[in-house]
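Researcher: Here's my situation. A collaborator sent me these components and asked whether they could plausibly form a single complex. I don't have experimental data yet, so a predicted model of the whole assembly would be a useful starting point for our discussion.
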Amino acid sequence: MTSTRATLQQVAERAGVSLASTSRALHGTGASKAMVERVRAAAAELGYSPDAVGRSLRMKKTFQIAFAVADIGNPVYVEMMRAIHGVLAPHGYRVVVMTTGDTTGSTADLVRSLNSGFVDGMVISPLRTDDRLIQEIQQAAVPVVVIGRALGDHGISSVSTDSAGGIGAAVRHLHAIGRRRVGFLNGPLDTTPGEARQRGFDAAVRAEGFAAERIEVEIAGDFTVAAGLEAARRLFARAPDGAGQLDAVVAANDLLAIGVIHAARELGLSVPQDVAVTGMDDIEIGRVFHPSLTSVSLGSTERGRAAAQLMLRLTEDPGQQAQQVAVGPALIVRKSTDGGAR
Amino acid sequence: MTSTRATLQQVAERAGVSLASTSRALHGTGASKAMVERVRAAAAELGYSPDAVGRSLRMKKTFQIAFAVADIGNPVYVEMMRAIHGVLAPHGYRVVVMTTGDTTGSTADLVRSLNSGFVDGMVISPLRTDDRLIQEIQQAAVPVVVIGRALGDHGISSVSTDSAGGIGAAVRHLHAIGRRRVGFLNGPLDTTPGEARQRGFDAAVRAEGFAAERIEVEIAGDFTVAAGLEAARRLFARAPDGAGQLDAVVAANDLLAIGVIHAARELGLSVPQDVAVTGMDDIEIGRVFHPSLTSVSLGSTERGRAAAQLMLRLTEDPGQQAQQVAVGPALIVRKSTDGGAR
DNA sequence: CGTTCGGCTGGAATCGTTTCCAAAAGTGTG
DNA sequence: CACACTTTTGGAAACGATTCCAGCCGAACG
């Protein structure tokens, strides 16, 4: 542990010049060749490095961006974080990770805490979005970018995706490979993704040309593997009402899908032969899972990157208008639905 | 976007009292009942919330702790981060995530950057530890806690585990279930975990009472699934030199183990019947993987928590001596080795 | 040679907070 | 009523940096 860090004042004294000149010399703005050299030398001797806090106070800029999510355990958020970090770090920003509980109230509180000015902006991916949260975002002292729901109507910058359409693609895929008894395992309906995916599913199965022998819907407590396993057991346990056992399950995300596959195995059902399973989010582990997981990619990396770029623009020019970015879904077929014709 | 945030000065004027009194009133220290009430009211009317930067400058404390890892994509680090966050957040600390590349040089640079004083401390889990890094840590301006290697000799606080012993437990387990042709898939040997695990493996197979027909070692490029898959292919491809095909593989971590299982499947080998596989770290996905993964837990959560608690102690009393914590490994047997007698 | 202009430099203000110190106000006792 | 003593209050000084502003100097030009 060194005695104490060197301050600009000390560098100035050592170089025998004024504080102002020292600052300028180190920034290379409007200082003579000789001055720069002299100050650089003094700074090097003292091992000076500028204090981030002092600089932040004066410049009214912290070079920190917050990334807030309900649960950092979800690989989707980790992917987003990597992407965000990848965009921001080269511009000199640090990323502060914040975990909101999954209640909308605590999320709103978190947004409110932005008023204490410890970051220059916040990227947030809330599970639920209510009026209070929207209002807090609108009143926030720093730019906020939302990943999830499109909030352009409220003058909020957001990066959205068409998860409803994505679920539709999954449903059509299953139909195309001949599955007719399809279950849908969704997460809580009062969440943004839960609501959208339900809408997508309902629309798809009601669409023209969709022939079904059986449709079942089950809701998991949250978007985790454990909740998915539990809910999937219930789903499979439903007594076939005349029609046969389900031959396909659409899961609202990959973690739930993994739970579904687990539950299927418990019952001796093989995937994809007996039951085809689709997930959503295209998390990395799905690719190496057995069977590898058919999934609808919502471009987590792309969304994270887009959000970070939006943020960059907003922090550099705070007068900027709110902007919207939409990332399209893409179905990626793998083994969990690719059993050929039965 | 509100016009501009209220400052303490403005609250003071509104309440008609001095700046000093205002500050005291809001902290509840040495202010009269009436004063507190008056100031509170003014603050509420203005929607005042204290500026984190101003406060940091004055108090020489940022209430931020950095967590630095090579790659946040590894679930182990995510688990640690959750644990660290869980300990620190209740004490009012924010967690800043930093990604070092996996080179030791950039890690040292990161530690050096602590001199700019944007955090009160740093928890770091470096893949490699060389002299320069150790030196930077020793000279760092704020407390540093290392998760990984025990560095008590260098006067550095660290949380370590016995991964060598953990590998030993895995090897003994495989031996106990009758496997005699065992492969070891390790990560780079110049990393801290790579070196320790190699040592553990070598010691275990040389131990008294260990009977082997065949031993093979292969090194993956890094600790990821992709690298594991590739290296595992090489491992399995080695021509059996008289002895039969491998019937067990010890992987240096769970991601590599997943790669091994994948490679085995490609060859039509079934796990665990043909090849038993063990991993290390006990990541969450291993529990729901198929087959579920036998793994040596190194207590990621526990280590993260311990590191955070150490950090807490160090920041609150900087004169504190460096401390060491060791977390023991624990073998958790699941299906990937539990095929019964063949 | 005097003037103007441009580039460098140093003094001082500023960002928002906490806290030291001295002064003022209140309290109780002799 | 004076005194000692304890709260309570306000002024001012930090913390470490950037930047406005005015002054200084030398060069160029008429």
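Model: Some features of this prediction you could bring to your collaborator: Residues 17-21, 24, 30-32, 35, 54, 56-60, 117 of chain B lie near DNA strand D (CB under 10 Å from a C1'). Residues 64-161+300-328 of chain B form a domain with the Rossmann fold fold (CATH 3.40.50.2300).
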